[in-house]
Batch of 2 targets.
Target 1
Amino acid sequence: MLNVRNEWMKLIRKRSAIALLVISGLLPLVAGPIINVLQNRFSFTAFDGESFPLVMLSLAVSFYLPLLLALAISDVFSGEQEQKTLSFLLVRPISRMKIFKSKTISTGLYLLALLLIICISSILSGAIWLENFTVHGLFLAVVSFMLSWIPLMALGLLFMFLVQWIGSGSRALTFSIILYLAMMVVNFLFPGLARWLPTYDTNWYQRWINSGLNTLVMGRCLYLLSWCAMFYTLGYYKFSKKEF
Amino acid sequence: MNTKILSAVGISGLLMAGGVLSASASASGYDLFKTSVKKTQHVNSFTANVQASLKDNDTVIYSVNSLNKENLKADSGSSTVSVINNGQKSNVEFYNNNQQSVVKSSKDNKYYVKQEREKKWDDSKKKHEEESFSAQKQKDIEAIFDALTKNYQDSVTSKQLPNGNTQLELDLSKNEIPAVGQAVMSFFLKNLDQQTGEKVHEGFGPLQFADLKPSIPQLVKNISVSRVDLKGEVNPDQYLTGQKADVYVSGTDASGKEHNLVLHISSNLDNLNKTNASTIDLNGKTVVKVQDRHDGHED
Amino acid sequence: MKKILEVQNVTKRFKNGRGIEGINLTVNQGEVFGLLGPNGVGKTTLMKCIVALCQPDSGSIFIHGHNVKEQFEQALKSVGTLISGVEAIDYLTGYENLLLISRLYPEIETGRIEKVLEWVGMEEHKNEKLKSFSTGMRQRLYLAAALLAKPSFVILDEPTNGLDIEGKLDFQHLISRLAKEEGVTFILSTHLIEEVERLCDRVAILSKGKIIGEATKNELEKNKTFESFYIDCIKKRKEVG
């Protein structure tokens, strides 16, 4: 696990990563007062302090976070390969398995950090700017943000597996975005097929907080976890066979 | 590929399939709903018992109860509506066939009659409508509907009722209700006072329905739709015979008092394809002829 | 004598036809082994195979008796590496780059990073980001990285690439000192004959993916240098080919 610190350092010290973390925190803080002004002017309440964090979350999980995740993963694998920095640690006494594991863990931590930052700043923003802020809403928000980690990570592991074939950061990012958009299209046009994709679950926190643990939620949970296991294994396999 | 990797992928693939299948098995309610709606669309006649009530902090401030008989083939219908508004009860009866519409209110003994003169135009319109609902269109509409309701489809639960019917339920909590819905509802409630001047119903000239309008408390703050509970009942022949909707809205008025409004609407269908509308014999009754003010539509 | 590195019949072909074929070589403890050949004959390919960045099509490689493919971590445990074309992280400082590596060797003592940075003359620049480094400074840092873990065996692929004259001399001093005083074993690939001349106890000549000659300093006839040995080998090769 020593290398997790290394991968984390590499990931988080990048200027783009720092900028994105800051922006992610600022967006909800800016959105709060704007919504407040608009709602007062046009006299309606679409968002209140209770629902605001969840609205932010639903926006974040549908495009923003998958994009940032794709960006991070493209950097961590294809980008490093392009810069020839991936091998810098590969030629040390650490197995490919451990490198892959630590890259996965640090990507997961980065995703968690993004979720936490958006969660905290949207709770604050909702509490400051919007009416009807409740403890219940706060609780739901925290739970929902944390639950969103799993489907996003499933998506991330798919990206991680597929970018192994791509040796350039920008191409890996473009590919991941197109792939994600394609999955979204499938999600809307072919509901039967959509059940086999993790994009079906991007807002699965809704199911958790509304119906709790039922057959549907357990089934999707099993699906997501085994999806993660599958693409983690495949990704590791491809990574271990790679030549530099 | 070595066996370890292969078995790991194989096992996780199987588990994945198990997860998907068990999840989709539990959420078949939506498909049943669609089937029943499509089937019910083709019903020729029915009797519908529609009830609606509005509660403010558990006090019923408004309720409507109506019995509607519709025969679409014969283009005739009749309904009796009773409204209790702030404890005052009034009844209205409607009769209509392809020649005339008749309205009778419990406030007087007069029968208001409006002649249907645009029968031909109506017919052609109806034909046009039937044509436009071709199989392809229906499919497109279904696809759009599927896409719009995507997020809710697997929240539809189904339950077998003792009477042999299946109950479908979609229970949406606050965070599942689209922001547009919240915005519209809050806008409507906040701006209630500006609508009081307008007439609610016009069509029947001297007969005013203003007193049938509910007096909803004026909410100003913290307005939100906190829950929408939709229920449907599908009979063994897959007709959608029962529909229920409960909409929960909360908010505070200018004095800071909290209001919990519950709008309840239910509709039960029976005598499918066996209903004949009641008719009214106007002989010996006081009849008031009503001029249709919307005569000669622009087109 | 103890065998530190054994390369057994290693073949690696690339799609473009380049690569290495049937390479056999052994590096013994305490040796400074030179792999000499012009650019593009497969020196780096062989080095990459040794550190498992590439998988040979056939043959096997052992370091300290451990198969590199199957027991990578044990094989590389006390090995320092510098592979040409492998870059450190641009947006981190020199010190931080070495910190990354030091975390992979749990037994490394504190202060070791400063020590190796001093060896390569980089202690002044340790807190500068790599972005601002010249090629020579990078190369010095990579050498520091290779020596960081007190390795008993060091793999150096084109180690003096981009170094100025002073840098080259510093490098040669450092290698000689480590070999003599601390008994560190080296394998270094280069296209520079004078480097081999000054440092190496034994040399293998690589041409078009094959080893065409191997000699120790002692084996060479009197007054003969590695340079003339190299020329002889190339000549013979041409006569054969």
Note: The longest strand of chain C covers residues 3-13.
Target 2
Amino acid sequence: MYDGRRTGGQADEVNRNQAGIDGARISESHGLRDRGPRGADARTRLLILVLIASAYLLIVFFWGLFMDPEMYATRFADKFLPPGFAHPFGTDFTGRDMFFRSVKGLSTSLVIGAIASAISSVIGLVFGIASAVIGGKFDKFILWCIDCCMGLPHLVLLILISFMLGRGAFGVMAGVALTHWPELTRIVRAEVLQLRSAQYVIASYRMGMSKFRVAKSHIVPHVLPVYLVGLVLLFPHAIMHEASITFLGFGLPPESPAIGVILAESMKHIATGKWWLALFPGLMLLVAVLLFDLIGENLKRLLNPTSGNE
Amino acid sequence: MRLEAHHLDFRYPKTDKWILKDVSLTVGAGERLALVGPSGSGKSTLSALLSGCLAADAGTVLWDGKPLPVKGYCPVQLIRQHPELSVNPRRKMGKILCESWTPDKALLEKMGIEERWMTRWPAELSGGELQRFCIARVLGPRTKFLICDEISTMLDVITQAQIWRLILDVTVQNGLGLIVVTHNPALAKRVCDRAIDLTDINAARP
């Protein structure tokens, strides 16, 4: 990416020299930086990367969602089989196939992560905009809530909420949803505050634009990319936290196929050399989290106008 | 139709220092006034107040005997010093240009605005190129008074001459009043009928 930009810059410089001092031609060579063939490649590469990552996550999500429970049913005859052709990730102490269990578990995590981060981001968006637009005491109150939420250790608050709401999928979801909004609220609030006093927004009002038109053409295009990137980057947090409180026993019930449960169970057997029980599900979780992070970071780059055309 | 300012006071929020104190000013229709003064004397602040971009702490700005409209198109339009702050970095130039009216091709040609710039983002144009868009977008028929706050400092002298000639043409043609904020005495002399030093009419001394 960076390399491509640099080469483009050099080509631009050469063109500039060839064009001499003729003003029109200088500004023409100026355009090369934006639409150079290498720049277009970099953008396409990024898009393909994002598509592959999304495809992997979607496949895991739907595969797990519609999976026949028979695939990871107990078969005591096959217990503790190491990874092989029949069972790529091995089997556990009741003979359940770890591959299908991991896919199902990750899918459950993705569902919880999706719902929790969707709720969380909507809270963040509403609070952020309201805080910036209403201002005054309401703004102070929201800021105080943010400080309270961020001041407490994340995991402690999560466990508390999940435990109070009776654990299970609902408790975990509520816990994750109610603890992840402060960062996004702060970002959205700052963005809207800055926009409200931006010269081009004031100029737009003076040119007779209504509040609705200003919101549509100036505020939303700025807040939406921030929101989308925030939403995608919330995913890995949500999934990790879901897995970690389930691992600690405050989350999903032990019989459900969840990555946290699988990892917690595997701890009992890891000392006896059953390494595959922890390694593969752990890797799958890690890959999913890293992919979400990659999508988020690349979206940030694609949606930013200063790097969007590179 | 006159632009009048009566006893304007202004200070920026959360500061004690008055930028403007008891500033009064009248500019008639079709009159061209140069507003001069050292840096920091409040020229840009006064420009923003006169165009309704800022609200004064005390005093009134009257256009045609009435306060400036809060909603709808403001007949007094301001062109600012920093074009890169005056355009939305996430809009394409074509949309920025046509925010309040659609300039015709002849005007764009005279301004030196090229057709292929329309599909670019503001980050892909220079300050001088952006400023031409900022000027062209407020030269519409609903503008009755123009305030130019150091609008040509980022342009080369030839383009400056070209743009000022065009602005003068439009002001004469549409009968616009004009306030030019500038540090350039030659420009003030060439474009304007009279000049006011802001430090002479401002009771708040920097």
Note: The two ends of chain B are 32 Å apart (CA to CA).
